Amino acid sequence: MPASDRVFGAIGHKLLLEDPLTPGELADLEGEVGVSLPGEYRDFLRRVGAGGAGPSYGVHPVQLVQGRWRWEGDGADLADLSRSGESFPREGADSEAVQLLLSEQPEEDDFDDIEDFDDAFEAWEERWERVMWSADRTVGAVLISTLGCAAREWPGASRFCR
Fold first, then answer.
1. Which one is predicted more confidently, 158 or 5?
2. Does the predicted TM-score (pTM) go above 0.70?
3. CA 152, 100, 105, 103: dihedral to nearest 10 degrees?
């Protein structure tokens, strides 16, 4: 069995890295998104690679696609660095809203019909996603990696410089 089959997430990135960005590419990327990326991430992009092998399912590659820079990968389209002057929120979703939603989460045992449960859960999940993934919470965020099962890692713009 090859090593890439024994390391979690390696089946996707095959333990390979994208080529690092050149200084010009990094400047172009930062110019397009309107921020200076955090120093550690800039160093990674310049010295290690523009994505690929990394924790879990790897680091989403940042690539020039049809003349525009973008992060490629599961959910990477959630990045929104375009709202100038705003910083990534330091706190998560409104804890009261989260607790209320959690208390209202449908339980399968409370339904006689699985389709009724599915409908109720789907409606609840839409409300959950509006709270957890609202633009007010994700402004300035760049999704750089996924851990699987919708668990994601993204540094906040509070660490980015405008």
1. 5
2. no
3. 120
